[in-house]
From TrEMBL:
The chain crosses the membrane at residues 12-34, 149-169. It comes from Pontibacter aquaedesilientis. Its EC number is 2.7.13.3. It is an enzyme of class 2 (transferase). One of its GO terms (molecular function) is kinase activity. The lineage of its organism: Bacteria, Pseudomonadati, Bacteroidota, Cytophagia, Cytophagales. InterPro entries: HATPase_C_sf, HATPase_dom, His_kinase_dom, Sig_transdc_His_kin-like_C. Pfam families: HATPase_c. Residues 187-391 form the Histidine kinase domain. It catalyses: ATP + protein L-histidine = ADP + protein N-phospho-L-histidine. Keywords: ATP-binding, Kinase, Membrane, Nucleotide-binding, Phosphoprotein, Transferase, Transmembrane, Transmembrane helix, Two-component regulatory system. This is histidine kinase.
Length: 391
C-alpha cells in the first residue's frame, strides 16, 4: 500500500501540465490582443502618413490646420520620426529626452531610435515635392510593449508564488511527519518499558534459582533483554537529538553484522571489507547506525528470499566523508520504484509496514547529516545502497 502523498511525482506532472496549459492560454490570448493593438497602431501611423501627403497638396490653409490638429496631433502614443530620403531627421513625435541635452546628442539618440524602428517595422514612404520622398519611421508604443511582455511577467510572478506555496507545503508536511515520527518513537519506547522491566525481573529470578543454574536459556534471555534495551534506546533517540561520537566505523559495522548473522538465514553469506586503515573513525550514534544496517540487510535478505550474499564495503570519499556500500544479490529494484523505496508505507511484502528504509533514511539524513540512497540496482542481479557519513 502506498499513501497518496507518495504519488508526488505524478501529481507534480499533472500540476505542471495544467500550469503549462494555463500559461499557453494566457500567452495566446495576450498575443491576440497585442496583434490587434499593433494593427491599430499601424493604421494610426498610416493615417499620419496620409495626413502628411494631403498637406502637400492641400487646396486651402483651413484644410491644413484641420489635418494638423485632428489627424497629425491625434497620435499621442506611437513614437514617430519623419526623415527625408537621406534619413536626415525632419520631425519626431512621442519621443522623450533627458533635460538640457545638446542637439548633437539628441540627433544621435534619434538615429538609434531609427535603427530600432527599422528592426520592428518597415518605414512608410511619403511622396514629397519634386519627386523626392520622405520616410515615416515608427515603433510600438510603450503600452503595446508592456502588453507584449505582460503575460511572461505574470507567469513569472505566478511561478514564484507557486514555488513559495510548494516549499511552504513541503515544510508543513515534513514538520507534521516529524511530529508523527517523534510521537510514535516516544510511545513505542514507553510501551517497551513495562515488558522489559518484567523480563529483567524474570532474569534475576532465573539467575538466582538453582533450578536454572548452568542453563543456556538464562544467558540467551539476557541477550534478548539487552537487545530490547538497545531497541528502546533507539526509539528514545528518535524522539530527541542523538549524540554523535567518533567511532571506529569498521568495528561498528562488523559488530552489527556479527549480531545479525546469528539471527537470520544461515544461507546468507556476509562480507565486510574496507579500503582504508582500521583505525579510521566516523561520527555516528552506534545504536541508531546499527538499526540502519539491520533494516537495510533485512530488506536485502527478503529480496534474496533467504539465500545469497551481502557485501559491505567501506571507502573514503575525499578527506571528510566515508561511504558504506551495502550490496546484495537479490531481485533488484525497478527504475520507476527507486525513488519510492524510502517513502513511509512502501513495501513489496505481504506483511510489513514499509517503515524500515524510511526510518533508515531519516536516521542517516536528519540525525547523522549524511546521505542514504540507492547507488545502483539491476533487476535479477541485486541492489547497492550507499550510506555517506561525516568523519
Amino acid at each position: 500500500m502506498i499513501p497518496i502523498y507518495s504519488q508526488k511525482n505524478r501529481i507534480k506532472f499533472i500540476v505542471v501540465i495544467v500550469a503549462l496549459i494555463i500559461g499557453a492560454a494566457t500567452i495566446t490570448y495576450t498575443n491576440i490582443l497585442v496583434s490587434k493593438l499593433s494593427e491599430r497602431e499601424q493604421e494610426l501611423v498610416q493615417l499620419y502618413a496620409k495626413g502628411l501627403r494631403y498637406m502637400i497638396n492641400a487646396p486651402s490653409d483651413d484644410n491644413i490646420v484641420f489635418i494638423e490638429e485632428e489627424i497629425l496631433s491625434s497620435n499621442t502614443t506611437v513614437p514617430v520620426i519623419l526623415t527625408d530620403e537621406h534619413e536626415n531627421i525632419l520631425d519626431f513625435k512621442n519621443i522623450s529626452f533627458p533635460e538640457n541635452i545638446s542637439d548633437r546628442r539628441k540627433n544621435q539618440l534619434l538615429q538609434r531610435e531609427i535603427a530600432r524602428m527599422k528592426a520592428q517595422h518597415a518605414p512608410i514612404v511619403v511622396p514629397w515635392a519634386e519627386g523626392s520622398e520622405n520616410y515615416v519611421f515608427y515603433k510600438d508604443s510603450a503600452l503595446l510593449s508592456q502588453l507584449r511582455y505582460y503575460p511572461y511577467v505574470q507567469l513569472l510572478v505566478i511561478a514564484c508564488f507557486a514555488l513559495m506555496a510548494y516549499f511552504a507545503f513541503s515544510y508543513s508536511r515534513k514538520a507534521e511527519q516529524n511530529r508523527v515520527w517523534v510521537g510514535l518513537a516516544k510511545e513505542t519506547a514507553h510501551q517497551l518499558g513495562t515488558p522489559l522491566s518484567s523480563l529483567m525481573a524474570w532474569y534475576e529470578y532465573m539467575k538466582s534459582s538453582p533450578k536454572f543454574e548452568n542453563e543456556p536459556i538464562t544467558a540467551e534471555l539476557w541477550k534478548d533483554i539487552r537487545r530490547l534495551e538497545i531497541i528502546t534506546e533507539r526509539f528514545s533517540n528518535i524522539g530527541s537529538v542523538p549524540l554523535l561520537r567518533d567511532e571506529n566505523i569498521l568495528q561498528v559495522t562488523e559488530n552489527a553484522i556479527n549480531y545479525l548473522q546469528n539471527r537470520i538465514s544461515s544461507k546468507v553469506d556476509f562480507t565486510v571489507a574496507s579500503s582504508f586503515a582500521p583505525e579510521i573513525t566516523a561520527k555516528v550514534n552506534v545504536p541508531l547506525f546499527d538499526w540502519v544496517i539491520e533494516n537495510i540487510c533485512k530488506n536485502a535478505v527478503d529480496a534474496m528470499e533467504g539465500r545469497g550474499s551481502i557485501r559491505l564495503q567501506l571507502s573514503l570519499l575525499g578527506k571528510s566523508q566515508i561511504a558504506l556500500d551495502i550490496s546484495d544479490t537479490g531481485k533488484g529494484i525497478p527504475k520507476s520504484k527507486v525513488d519510492s523505496v524510502f517513502l513511509p508505507g512502501y513495501t513489496t511484502k505481504k506483511r510489513g509496514w514499509g517503515l524500515g528504509l524510511a526510518l533508515a533514511k531519516r536516521i542517516i539524513d536528519n540525525y547523522h547529516r549524511g546521505r542514504l540512497y540507492v547507488k545502483s540496482s539491476e533487476i535479477g542481479k541485486g541492489t547497492t545502497f550507499r550510506i555517506v557519513l561525516n568523519r
